């Protein structure tokens, strides 16, 4: 017998369904909104519970939680895909470059150091929580599960210690093999967009010191020159805060918050918010999909990441298996 999945049409998003991973709730996790009170018709969350949608008769707002104690609410505005496409915004890890396993490995090494257990490895069920978000979000999850007596500062110290060492080794040509591999079809896809005069933005929740060597290495492998010359805008989560040196904003405003994508498009590419329907964002992670959608752009998911597992496929305007398939949408 076919299972009946709960469905609902909500302002700003259209039809949502349990079939694509959404979860219907009785109350927002912060306790501020409840179904059938103060005009709230329903409350629906993504499968990973990172974003909750509070639905009213004429509008929807999104609540983005925070493992660091700074959640936020955002309006959910309708998106209508319009050609010609003016800009394509793309994620780095998992979408442009296959490196997610490397950074999960760094997280695992960090927890191993915190526990002083060289044999430690993360479990499969940890993966959706240690990819696609900020470093601090990843580490906070691991601390809560494996070593709650340790502090976030201790974890960050180990994380950046391992990162500095491994990135240095990679840049010297003797690091972890296969750490940064260009995604299949990415070279032809990017060159075709360039030939169409489509503006290109690269967007990542990764800190600059870990993100830029990835794309630099991938471009070197592909023989595409300097990525800073190729892309019209590259936005990262900035520089980490360490004792004795200034840091930049990035740890509290990463995906699934909309700010990285919004800044890339509006500030980096100079495209007005009123033209957002001619902009698409390509992502392979649940956090990234939420970020693109909350920024107000047509959302294209690409397979290979955790979109299905995170219960965010319902936020995708399109879900594709390859860059060739995405190009057919753009032309």
UniProtKB/TrEMBL annotation:
Domain of life: Bacteria
Species name: Ruminiclostridium cellobioparum subsp. termitidis CT1112
GO biological processes: DNA repair
GO molecular function, one term: phosphoglycolate phosphatase activity
Pfam families cross-referenced by the UniProt entry: HAD_2 (PF13419)
Protein's name according to its UniProt entry: Putative phosphatase/phosphohexomutase
């Amino acid at each position: 017998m076919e299972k009946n999945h709960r469905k609902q049409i909500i302002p700003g998003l259209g039809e949502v369904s349990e079939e694509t991973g959404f979860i219907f709730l009785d109350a927002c996790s912060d306790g501020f909104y409840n179904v059938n009170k103060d005009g709230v018709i329903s409350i629906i969350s993504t499968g990973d519970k990172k974003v909750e949608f509070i639905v009213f008769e004429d509008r929807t707002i999104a609540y983005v939680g925070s493992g660091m104690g700074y959640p936020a609410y955002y309006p959910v505005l309708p998106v209508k895909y319009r050609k010609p496409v003016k800009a394509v915004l793309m994620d780095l890890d998992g979408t442009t470059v296959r490196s997610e396993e490397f950074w999960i490995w760094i997280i695992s090494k960090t927890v191993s150091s915190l526990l002083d257990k060289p044999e430690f490895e993360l479990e499969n069920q940890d993966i959706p929580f240690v990819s696609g978000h900020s470093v601090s979000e990843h580490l906070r999850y691991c601390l809560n599960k494996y070593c709650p007596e340790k502090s976030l500062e201790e974890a960050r110290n180990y994380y950046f210690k391992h990162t500095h060492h491994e990135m240095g080794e990679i840049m010297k040509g003797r690091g972890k093999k296969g750490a940064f591999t260009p995604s299949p079809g990415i070279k032809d896809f990017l060159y075709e967009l360039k030939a169409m005069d489509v503006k290109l933005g690269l967007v990542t929740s990764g800190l600059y010191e870990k993100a830029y060597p990835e794309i630099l290495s991938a471009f070197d492998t592909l023989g595409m020159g300097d990525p800073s010359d190729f892309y019209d805008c590259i936005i990262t989560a900035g520089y980490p805060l360490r004792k004795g040196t200034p840091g930049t904003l990035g740890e509290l405003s990463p995906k699934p918050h909309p700010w990285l994508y919004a800044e890339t498009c509006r500030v980096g590419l100079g495209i007005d918010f009123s033209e957002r329907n001619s902009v698409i964002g390509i992502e392979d992670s649940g956090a990234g999909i939420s970020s693109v959608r909350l920024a107000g752009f047509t959302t294209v998911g690409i397979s290979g990441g955790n979109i299905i597992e995170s219960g965010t496929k319902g936020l995708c305007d399109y879900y594709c298996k390859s860059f060739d398939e995405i190009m057919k949408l753009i032309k």
